[in-house]
Amino acid sequence: MVSPAQPAAAMAAFARMVKGQVRNYSAPLDMAIPASKQKYIPSSGSYPKGFLVSGTHVGVKASNTKFPDLALISSETPCSAAAVFTTNKFQAAPVQVSKKTLQSRQGQGIRSVVINSGCANAVTGKGGLEDAVNMGSKVDECYGLSEPSTLVMSTGVIGQRLPISKILDKIPTAHANLASTHDAWLTTARAICTTDTFPKLLSRTFTLPSSPGRTYSLAGMTKGAGMIHPNMATLLGVLCTDAPIDPSALQSLLKHAVSRSFNSISVDGDTSTNDTVAILANGAAGGAPISSPASDDYTAMQDILTSFAQSLSQLVVRDGEGATKFVTVRVQNSPDYESARLIASTIARSPLVKTALYGRDANWGRILCAIGYTQGVAPGTVVPERTSVSFNPVDGSPVLKLLVNGEPEQVDEERASVILQEEDLEIVVDLGGGEKGEQGLGGEEAVYWFCDFSHEYVTINGDYRT
């Protein structure tokens, strides 16, 4: 005998289950870009000369029946190339293969980057290494090249072998579809996405001191939404420029840029096995090659590349799994850069700080705790009596001081709540060690970008493989 209350209870339980499957901040099942993320999609671009790209559907995951999941980025001429890789000890097959290719070619003569999404080809043994080699070789065949000239990247689930035959069969199609249009670049950026809710693509033009009348272009795409924390993250990135840069200079320029961009972001504090950021420079726009770190062109290129990489990496944070907030933490007046960076990193990965921000709770004590337990900072960096913490609203209104020289402020909770309702927030930590500090310990600053932790993050990662 079924009581009247039982059907009602069953319906309520079903409604709760359905509600739990609604993902407000993650990629919709139909891959439609959420309305709130549309503003990050460029409608046009200024792309570097001599580069062609394509995004092709393979179906690496059986559930993907129509979306592009194979990206090919190629130069019409050989390039200088450089890359920064994950420090995870379980480095995926494509990481190992791409490292070897760059080393054997000494950063010269690279033509392409091929990327699949849907399967990471990580922890896949000797067979996985063979698959990565074969991906690169298949692209090289399209150009009639016998030596390895292609970097390989993969992203997706760890511990599963690639459907390599399907991928190899589609590489000639990807090569045949190469184009230089904005739509081609955008489709290629989409092809490397996994749990991303939108493709991440940027481009810009610039000049160099030695050739003020010559216009160069820089373009880049990246993917990542979860397992994001240096060094580096479940993150792939490819940058291309038509500026002429020697391989040794390119590697040092990229390393500097990544340390202040892709290695200064955090979504959840996890790092993965496949992370790679690579840059290709084909010199197609002409001019004198950048080689010496002492040159004006090198200094200018360093600033340009770092700024560009920061903008690109910030899109990863804005697309953090389940994220509702984009947070900048700025640690000022530290005796050295590395100490400031360690403190910023600790705040960025604190679950208690991140959940408080999600709950719009100005619980600054959690920030202070993270500062206080940061490991590895230089002695005397953190002195409670010199430490100040504040919220810096993005609307230009006055700073909300929370702690000043170790003394708590009377916080206007209503105003704090209003500030925390905004998507963007800046947290400023002043260690008091700059020129105005009592001991004048120095004035170094480090900046980190991170997001909050929401219920959605648990939902996404609780059923990632299902």
TrEMBL record:
Keywords: Acyltransferase, Amino-acid biosynthesis, Arginine biosynthesis, Autocatalytic cleavage, Mitochondrion, Multifunctional enzyme, Transferase. The record marks 233-234 as: Cleavage. InterPro entries: Arg_biosynth_ArgJ (IPR002813), ArgJ-like_dom_sf (IPR016117), ArgJ_beta_C (IPR042195). The record marks 155-156 as: Involved in the stabilization of negative charge on the oxyanion by the formation of the oxyanion hole. Heterodimer of an alpha and a beta chain. It catalyses: L-glutamate + acetyl-CoA = N-acetyl-L-glutamate + CoA + H(+); N(2)-acetyl-L-ornithine + L-glutamate = N-acetyl-L-glutamate + L-ornithine. It is found in: Mitochondrion matrix. It comes from the Eukaryota. Pathway: Amino-acid biosynthesis; L-arginine biosynthesis; L-ornithine and N-acetyl-L-glutamate from L-glutamate and N(2)-acetyl-L-ornithine (cyclic): step 1/1; Amino-acid biosynthesis; L-arginine biosynthesis; N(2)-acetyl-L-ornithine from L-glutamate: step 1/4. The lineage of its organism: Eukaryota, Fungi, Dikarya, Ascomycota, Pezizomycotina. This is Arginine biosynthesis bifunctional protein ArgJ, mitochondrial. GO terms for cellular component: mitochondrial matrix. It comes from Aspergillus udagawae. Belongs to the ArgJ family. HAMAP family: ArgJ. Catalyzes two activities which are involved in the cyclic version of arginine biosynthesis: the synthesis of acetylglutamate from glutamate and acetyl-CoA, and of ornithine by transacetylation between acetylornithine and glutamate. The alpha and beta chains are autoproteolytically processed from a single precursor protein within the mitochondrion. One of its GO terms (biological process) is ornithine biosynthetic process. One of its GO terms (molecular function) is L-glutamate N-acetyltransferase activity, acting on acetyl-L-ornithine as donor. Substrate binds at residues 194, 223, 234, 321, 461, 466.
